[in-house]
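User: Mind token order:
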Amino acid sequence: MGRKAQISLVAVVLTAVLVALGAYLWDASRDGTIAEGVTIGGVDVGGLDADAARGEVERNLIDPLSETVTVKYGDEKFTLTRHESDVSADVERTIDEALAASREGGLAGRTWRALTGEEVHEAITPRIEYDREAVDHFVAHIAANIDREPVDASVEPSGGKLVPVASRSGLTVDRGGLTRGVERALEDPSDRIVEAEVEKVKPEVSTAEVADEYPTYLVVDRSNFTLTLYEDLKPVRTYTVAIGAQGFDTPTGLYSIQNKQVDPVWSVPDSGWAGSLAGQTIPPGPDNPLKARWMGIYDGAGIHGTDDTASLGSAASHGCVRMAVPDVIELYDRVDVGTPIYIG
């Protein structure tokens, strides 16, 4: 090999050594710098040293974690503060991971990225921690305020009237879905609002079903001496009646029509007030006070017609409900055995 060739070879080797040394020194100088393309929780930290990256992460990721998580349902709002959730993130660990990702590929790989401008494209997910028991309590609190049992339709006699109670759907919070939503909000500081998902629970008995169950219903208002006929839970006719006199009170409470009879036979109670008729059976006729129709209610008491129309609108009977003869005939044809009757 000639002298010129030797000199050229030495120059090439020396150049390679100098380039390698330069690359090494440059790379060593970048040892504490995060490579371009690296993000932490969506925060771009490429080209920053550890301290600068820490500042960016704390400002754009950690500080927003202090914002309250809010759960909405309609006009209602429920809040979970950072103090209550004890939410936090391991910033130091994420910075270390960013630096480690920046050193991948060896000296050659890092040098090539520097020469070509190629980025690392490493998205690091920060480890966010919180008190899961606090989340469970928060969700339980929300459910306790929103959940409600369904209400079956029913009827409620009150104040001499029949009050239909309409059915109402219940509500139940999707606790599993809400828990996941709150956890996502805790882990994503960009969205701190959660909409509670609530399911409706149908009642077992609807309003329409109650109306079908009670096609007819009778209510006796003793204080006003009236009997009201309800059909499909709506009042259709009110009659003036007589009720039991003091000491012979018409029984109160909820009963039903137990039996019906046209031109009834009167089985006279074996009681002192019946006098010489006590214990006898009186056939239909002028001596029988049970006129035209009989609808038995309870323990010898019932609804019947009377020719003593002057007693209507007063407490005058021995416990029965008296009606004018045309009225009792009309009512008789509109109710069946088993029709409920409330006497109040």
The first strand starts at residue 38 and ends at 40. Residues 233 and 278 are 40 Å apart (CA to CA).
